[in-house]
Amino acid sequence: MPIDATKVASPGWWLQRLGKKLLDERDDTVNSENDVIPGLISLRRAAEGEPKIPHVPGVDRSEITEWMRDARTNWVSLVIDSPGERLGVDGFRFDDADSGSDSADDARVSDKEANRIWQENSMDADSALVHYGAMSQRRAFILVERGDDGRPVLTHETPMQVAVEHEQGNRRKLAAGLKMWRDDWTGSTRATLWTPGAIHEFTTKTSDPSFTGRAAEMRGWDAMTLPSLPDGVRVNDLGMVPLVPFINRRNRRPEGFAEHEDVLSIQNRINLSLINLIAAMKYGAFRQRWAAGLVVDEDPLTGKPIQPYQLDIRKLWTTDNPDVKFGEFAATDLMPYVRAVEAAVQDLAAISRTPPHYLIGAVVNVSGDALKAAETGLISKVRDRQRGFGESWENVMRLAFRVIGDDARATAWGAETIWRDPESRTISELADAAVKKASAGVPWRQRMEDMGYTPAQIARMEIDRAADALNATPAEDPQPASLQAKRDSRTLITRTADDVPDAA
Questions:
Q1: What span, in angstroms and rounded, lies between the C-alpha atoms of 194 and 199?
Q2: Which residue from 24, 31, 69, 37 is spatially nearest to 51, judged by alpha carbons?
Q3: Of 217, 222, 145, whose CA–CA distance to 177 is shortest?
């Protein structure tokens, strides 16, 4: 039975709207200024080192494709991996007042429960996939659902399969979310639509669905019926769309901007320079020989000229004709091509704020302070990503606590994501800073966090510190309190001036 798509905000209307939005973003588009906006497929291929084949006049495309296999140098992967390697989540902290607790111990319980949710869903590994997906494809998503045991289930979703829509005039609240994927077991396409009040399941037999955005009916789509869901609809007991977007570089574009999106043209320039370099190496680097005044014999059968000499390091060209002259053409200078590649790499490093020694790989007689200065732009970029992704992780944890019915933590707006320090520091630097912070009155737990220990490690160290304090043997056995009190109450007898005999 066709699904009605005429009523605004109806399930069919959302399926058509979000389905078209999902498919349209996969392919490249051209804006009003005739600029090509790369689609998700192009962004993914560029990140994986499969860029578009450049056009070289006079050279066959198949030959360029063969050269590209040898000339391919994927610089943009470093642009994505450099900040991604420094984005590590160590835990979460919930404010006492917001989490409904009355003591610092309760605050540590909140961290422990959040860490349990994190570990149950293997997010130590999957969080890196979320960060990489957001940086390489503009955004990523976390889907929060209730598992069979009632515990939260967190899964990483990609924009190739998920699209969301915000409420009108509100960029923080989602009105609907759609996930569409191909079922490899049946060959059909399935779709799940989330709205704040309900969850709808759809299916179609085609493996390549399309959406016009103007159809009154969604033909070919049916509600997916299950024994527990005869009409393919179930109540969304969370009361909100359980998808949390991780949007990269929202300041460049509200729907996200990939980490390497503004350096794709530079990567294309590098690819073209490398292709030209290979062409010069193949056809111009070898010194061509020539001979003037030489009589060339012809093949009596074919009538074609016979090659008089063969290039061989063991052979010498000679002739009986004293009027014959030999010479060679100069080889093509390859340095301009190499310098063109180096200049493009420097442009890529400046625009993407990637340390030059990451791209060039040459570090000679460079001090530690110089390396830190070179990484300043990268560290600033990482901290900017931490602010944006940190808000998303906090929303994920609040939604996870909503799943288990913890309303206090589900509305804990003072939640904080604990990020690993993105700067490279030696152990001696961290220890020295901790000693100075202790003298300044910084609490022990905060000093341990600054040294890079995770909340779980700090909790274990607190237990070990308490055990060490109990097992420690004092240097001297103190006197009992009763004897100490008696000693303090004794009258001190001293000699005064009246007690001294008169010398007279």
A1: 5
A2: 69
A3: 145
Residue 250 dihedral angles phi and psi, to the nearest 5°: -65, -25
- Distance (Å, whole) CA 350 – CA 266: 11
Encoded tokens for 192 = 């799940």
State the residue for tokens 């006079």.
58
* Type of residue at 56: V
CA angle 169, 170, 176 (to 5 degrees): 105
Nearest Cα neighbor of 151 from 393, 408, 407, 403 is 403
Contact 153, 144 (CB under 8 A): yes
pLDDT digit string, tens, across residues 227-271:
677 778 999 999 999 999 999 999 999 899 999 999 999 998 888
- Count the alpha carbons within 13 Å of 251 in the hemisphere toward its beta carbon: 5
Per-residue pLDDT tens for 10-20? 999 999 999 99
For the full predicted model, state whether its pTM sits above 0.70.
yes
Round the average pLDDT of the chain to a whole number and report it. 83
Cα distance between residue 15 and residue 193, in whole Å: 7
The answer to whether 241 touches 175, Cβ cutoff 8 Å, is: yes
Which DSSP letter does residue 73 get? -
Contact criterion met (CB below 8 Å) for 124 and 116: no
Q: How far is CA 387 from CA 143, 401, 405, in A?
A: 20, 21, 27
Map residue 428 onto helix, strand or coil: helix
DSSP E strand stretches across 394-466: 416-419
Distances (CA, A) of 480 to 222, 336, 477, 484: 84, 88, 9, 6
Q: How far apart are the first and last CA of the chain?
A: 132
